[in-house]
Write a structure and sequence with these properties.
two-stranded antiparallel sheet; 8 helices
Amino acid sequence: MAVALRAVDDLLGDPAVCVAADRALQLVRSRFDGERWSDQFELLGGNAGIALGALSVGDVELAILAVTPYLHRAEPTASGVQWEVRAGMPARFHHISHGTLGIVQALAAVGRAAGRSDLTELALAGAADVVARSEADQEGFLVPHSDPQHKPDLIERYSYGWCHGPAGDAQVFRLLGAVTHDPAWQALTDRCWHTVTQSGLPRQV
């Protein structure tokens, strides 16, 4: 709501809307428990989303507050790091909406805005974990939904969309390319595009 109100204020210059946006941001700050805002600890319902929202309204201080806990809660893996996405949940999700790449998106964006190399380096470690999980050939990019598989009786192992698939992964790789100026991230973006366009969707459905 703060993001929407600030956007309206930017367009219309309405003082009442500006006050409401500030009040919304104060409410967000007041509900921080020192580590998170809820059981969720990812982009759609947790710290990473709050960080990106804060950045979009120019509140870098709140954005840093939101991503700092990721520095202490990163779990080392064979290829990088990952995070718990909901308190007590054994599965580790890999993609943008609820998983590692959503946290990577926030860390990279805040790291760039705040000039914090430690946040950028952690973002790269998270991305490295996900990249190492790709099960596609060198032309494509396809990472499982989660490990161990979350609700395997209900959720398919692979997705192709924004939430848990290469359509979303590509957005994070594009940001990492802009932050690092490393052409390898554009190559990964292209591999995501290849997988999406060669998936058989929407014809397959």
